[in-house]
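Worked Example 4.2. Consider the chain below.
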Amino acid sequence: MRAAVLVEQGRIEMEQRPVPTPQPGDVLIRVSSVGVCGSDTHYYRHGRLGGFVVEGPLVLGHEAAGTIVGVGESVDPSRVGQRVSIEPQRPDPDSDETRRGHYNLCPHMRFFATPPVDGALCDYVTIGAEFAHPVPDSMSDDAAALCEPLSVGIAAIRKAELDGPERREGGGSRVLIAGAGPIGIVVTQLARAYGATEIVVSDPDPTRRDRAVAFGATTVVDPTTEGTDDLAVDAFIDASGAVTAVAAGIRSVRPAGRIVLVGSGAESMELPTQLIQNRELVLTGVFRYANTWPTAIALVESGRVDLDAMVTARFPLEKAADALDSDQIPGSVKSVVTVS
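Applying the procedure from the previous section yields the following structure tokens:
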């Protein structure tokens, strides 16, 4: 099979590799579509992301969809031919975290395109059958692949409790989202789907602010010229990873509100701990997702979230390097590699 392999920092080469064999409990999937994520571009350009370091050839890509073409032992053979969205993780079923239901936090996780585990920029992949989620015929291959970043957003919205008991009397929640990149746009759509009546998106780029409005923001803010301290939002979700955005966002939250850190930025930062304590704010993070795919598929199928509208460019597998660089094109939201 074909595989687009990161052989060294900044260089992708096409290789021929054996088609993988599905192990017991696995399915073999012919990949159709792979979204390009910011983590892919970090590995491509810098060779690392936080503590994850590329130390050998690596196939990138973890936002993926395809069709089941083979099954391993103990998997129902009738699954062959199913179109699926891939949840790209292999947790240890016996870890304490997995047993608690927090399998995304499993210390023995093997996650697509996280060194040294290969990802989906290739013709075929295998995954545990329970992590290959059937999708309806109405869902495109691209949307099926983008259920992965949508799942990150769902995890964030759940942590923000926009549909929880603390909702405002007489109306939906007020939420502030920092960053109008792909995850920020996903979270904006989800905030609307979950009933938020005021969705404020902060981003210094005017093109991105306009894009946020198109996807459901009720207000946009330029953080370089406008403050947000007086917003008193129910929840602040950071999708930027920027130190200044996190600091400003925390000050924007009402007493007993919630702060959710999604964006990957500085390894550490100074926080206004006295303000957090005095307002009894709840601050938490998001690391991937767990138990989100049924919700993601239902939201897309119902039309409450539009993933296809986020796709701004498509590339063949042989042009994977161009896809990884396409985030630098003005107006880019989400690029997809079409594999088959």
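The longest strand covers residues 26-35. The chain has ten helices and 20 strands. Compare this with Example 4.1 before moving on.
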